[in-house]
Amino acid sequence: MDWCVAAPGTAIASSVVSGEIDANKWYDEDGEVNGFEVTGDRPVFGYETWSGTFMAAPHVTGALGLLMERFPYLDNPQIRDVLLTTAHDLGAPGVDEVYGWGLIDLKKAIDGPGQLRVDTHVQMDRRAGGAVVWQGGAWDDWRND
């Protein structure tokens, strides 16, 4: 198996290896040392502006995770629709090729779907998938108009 390691900090080991790993040395299938250890200065931590898909993916994943916690009774497509239908529209009106549905608006998404795009059945006393969450009457407020 080949893999790479990269992380902020000191005593960073970084290499592409195949074979077994033993402490800070990597061996290939023939028992030869294939890796090395890199030690560098500790980087200065702070905030930076980053953009691009490598930042979009964890942002969207985190937002979906929060919505799954907020709406445990919704299934994955319903959670996705909450995120999409509450996004702040950018560019041409509506869904477009450049900005898609727009910019995530998590504050609005926490209030529920912006619209129901398909017929939707929700059983609020159960987690999506059927596990009982609570007994008795269940309700929730969806406040998006």
Task: Draw up the topology in text.
Elements: E1 21-22, E2 25-26, H1 53-70, H2 76-85, H3 106-109
Helix pairs in contact: 1-2
Strand tally is: 2
Taking all Cα atoms into account, the compactness measure Rg is: 23 Å
Main β sheet profile? 2 strands, antiparallel
Shape: extended
Work out the strand percent: under 5%
Q: Given the helix and strand composition, which structural class is it?
A: mainly alpha
Poorly predicted parts = 1-17, 36-41
Question: How are the strands of the biggest sheet laid out side by side?
Answer: 1-2
Distance between the termini: 51 Å
Fraction of residues in H or I helices = 10-25%
Q: Average pLDDT value?
A: 71
Write up this protein:
With 145 residues, the protein is mostly helical. Among the domains are: 1-42, no CATH class; 53-109. The chain is built from 3 helices and 2 strands; from the N terminus they run E-E-H-H-H. The chain has helices at residues 53-70, 76-85, 106-109, and strands spanning 21-22, 25-26. Strands 1-2 form a two-stranded antiparallel ribbon. Strand 1 and strand 2 form a beta hairpin. Helix 1 (53-70) packs across helix 2. The longest helix has 18 residues, at 53-70. The protein is extended and about 60 Å long.
